Amino acid sequence: GTDEHELVRETAAHLNERQGRETSAVGGHAGLSTVEKMIALRSAPIFSSLPPEGLAELGRASVEHEYVADEALCVQGESGNEVFILLAGEVNVLIGHGANAKVVAEEKAGGFIGEMAVLDPAPRSATVVAKAGGVRVLRLDGDAFRDALNTDVAIASGVIRTLAQRLRGKA
Q: How far is CA 66 from CA 24, 40, 69, 163, in A?
């Protein structure tokens, strides 16, 4: 109903206002409500076509998390069953370990990482590290992500397009 739309509008205004006050990607604030998570998910291009019910489902299956600069979101060679939706800040994607680690890509707010380990149950193909200022993410359960792929063609094609771009070295 109208109340729902009003709530979403108010929450969006609140988030925008709060975002403007933060000096870095990582601010000390309480966890997001499901509605706030829905708005955050909707802002990621891959989920922009998802109806509210789908966004709510993903919102409930996700946890907000903050990483400080140089902290690893995931590590190459480890197993993982979650996708990271970047809400604020940027990350470096590295291949190799220690002194041999090489930055092969960057991802910024609105993007997502970690989908390969969820789609193909093999160890993580890269290490992902928060850049200066830290990063705020929604950690999305892999099963919920797979369900979204199976129910929404736009999400599936968005993931396929992103994977193709990454294979070509453009992302």
A: 11, 14, 10, 25
